[in-house]
């Protein structure tokens, strides 16, 4: 039976509602890893050179699985892809607990890698909500799902206190408690998607477009990386969108990954260990709030002003952020404000860039390009986190921020060039 327009609106409303609620719980997964990852890595590895390793493993997990999850979505729908990713992330949270219990550094990295699949799910969810969205509301619908991560993602870094209490009840080390809470949140998120994401938005969209996906051209390539690359090469606007998203994510991850260690150096001499950890958790929470809390505003601006102006605004915000944190590294208020701006800039670029990618491609091209975008975005984040640790040791926290500023400027110039080529 053909889906009527009122039914389609009802399906889209249900999709937005289901994914938004699921994101609230699944967002708990990354928060604890982001807040405690660099500190645990130094404690277990015994060297600050490994400070960025956990965030590197986290983002590598996202990068390595974004395309396979998009291929799974193409084959079996969004529900299967999203629940599979979250199931792996739950196992990852369990490995993080085991790492704390056994002081096992390899377990820590393996757990972070699998938790990265939760990030891949969060990224794919923002595209899933656009499968049936009308063009005039595409940016806002996407941003609502991004916004829903706020509650879980902001709460995650602040699970140190509740996690310690839970750990006491369970008889495990205090630093393992937050990861137990993260796992429970992701279990709830996976259950919500499995039960309520029906009908599947991607499969419904495919039915409305006439059935099976294209069997020829780039989308049918046996190499999904090559397929995504070919699509972007043929569409400069889509390439511009992905360039901006990649740069914003690399900068955000690099600076954010090093900030807890920098704050520990700055505050450790004057505050107790738990006080320092609480301060770091609070700062990372504000940063994550900047990433997600105002995403509906970014979606509104995207629909109102257009994706490209909103992306450029986000890039300008990122430059302001790294200038603030780099020029006043000893002032914790300035560092915190800079991290909030870092989150806001990331939000603007990610929401507007993702909307620009979807709107610039035909339906059959979107999922391969989305998978390529998420994979390269996460890979850039992994490179940023990996490079930030040695850079921190060589040129300090201000130097990390200076390199981040240069990357944003270069990406903005590429974006402007690709935008001109598309006209």
TrEMBL record:
Record keyword Transmembrane present: yes
Ranges annotated as spanning the membrane: 80-101, 107-123, 144-170, 176-197, 238-257, 277-298, 310-328, 334-358, 379-397, 403-421
Entry annotated with the keyword Transmembrane: yes
Domain Major facilitator superfamily (MFS) profile positions: 15-422
Keywords: Membrane, Transmembrane, Transmembrane helix
Matching Pfam families: MFS_1
Superkingdom to which the source organism belongs: Bacteria
Localization annotation: Cell membrane
Xref: Gene3D superfamilies: MFS general substrate transporter like domains (1.20.1250.20)
Protein name (Swiss-Prot/TrEMBL): MFS transporter
Organism per entry: Citricoccus zhacaiensis
